[in-house]
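Complex record, two chains
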Amino acid sequence: GQQLNQSPQSMFIQEGEDVSMNCTSSSIFNTWLWYKQDPGEGPVLLIALYKAGELTSNGRLTAQFGITRKDSFLNISASIPSDVGIYFCAGLRSSGDKLTFGTGTRLAVRP
Amino acid sequence: NAGVTQTPKFQVLKTGQSMTLQCAQDMNHNSMYWYRQDPGMGLRLIYYSASEGTTDKGEVPNGYNVSRLNKREFSLRLESAAPSQTSVYFCASSEAAGGLGETQYFGPGTRLLVL
């Protein structure tokens, strides 16, 4: 089955740096979701995007729904140690379709 | 509200043994899902239940069966465990009825090792 391509696969950054990651697909999605998975836990929804071009923020997190509807981006500003985890994008073509998950971006933050 | 709960948290099985993973949600959601997570593979859908009384196969259903016991509970059964089923299993639920869309809420996961 199709999975969304996320990049980078992993990042190791200094506390205070900004982080950018993206998710791309060869097909169109009408909803994009970003999840974070803390070590040993299940994924937790961070941001949901429903319209092409939409830019949505949640605290230090900002996500964008790409204009082509084939990609989405997540930015984290001023990273802190608790940002550590795996970030997954997920896309939905329609309300009756299955959710497709990305392969994940693993983030490590050095204090 | 506890959200989505899963039991057990950890399990070790021998090849050929059977077991059932339990999942319950207290959000009155209509749809429930079982995923497995393997390194570098993200989350892959095993089975889902769009509403009480219905179940359907996902991307990787082979070797698994499910039961939607009632609106709250959705169990995953391995009849004869194989080493390839070593994984982390996540249950999720969403409000949507009749579909697989919308925001899904995940349980904490069950870590299964098959020897």
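Note: The mean pLDDT of chain B is 91.
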